[in-house]
């Protein structure tokens, strides 16, 4: 089996797409650290629109994004009303 010349044989492949496991672990750790930092409420307040005009702009942007969606994931409704 041929190995690429620029990668040492002992280097693990950086799996992309369906499974960059190192990136997933880093993201999970960063998310956990942020949640545990106690800064979530302040970040949510900072993200609120500062004016009615900004709120309207955000609503329009959300509607624009939704207009490109293929539909809601049926799994989101699983168990609803049952």
Walkthrough of the structure:
It is a single chain. With 82 residues, this protein is mainly alpha-helical. It has a domain at 34-66. The protein has 3 helices and no strands. It has helices at residues 21-36, 40-47, 52-67. The model has no long low-confidence stretch (mean pLDDT 82).
Keywords:
mainly alpha; extended; single chain; 82 residues
Write the layout of secondary structure elements.
Layout: H1 21-36, H2 40-47, H3 52-67
Instruction: Please identify the structural class as seen in this structure.
Output: mainly alpha
How many helix segments? 3
User: Strand content of the residues, in percent?
Assistant: under 5%
State the low-pLDDT regions, or none: none
For the largest beta-sheet, the strand count, sense and barrel status come to: none
The shape is extended
Please compute the radius of gyration using only Cα atoms: 21 Å
The helix/strand series, from N terminus to C terminus, equals HHH
Number of extended strands: 0
Question: How far apart are the first and last residues' alpha carbons, in Å?
Answer: 54 Å
Helix fraction by DSSP (H/I, runs of at least 4): 40-55%
Mean pLDDT: 82
């Amino acid at each position: 089996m041929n190995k690429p010349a620029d990668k040492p044989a002992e280097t693990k492949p950086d799996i992309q797409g369906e499974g960059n496991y190192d990136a997933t672990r880093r993201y999970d750790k960063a998310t956990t650290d942020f949640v545990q930092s106690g800064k979530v409420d302040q970040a949510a307040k900072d993200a609120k629109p500062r004016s009615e005009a900004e709120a309207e702009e955000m609503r329009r942007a959300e509607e624009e994004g939704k207009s490109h969606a293929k539909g809601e994931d049926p799994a989101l409704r699983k168990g609803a009303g049952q």
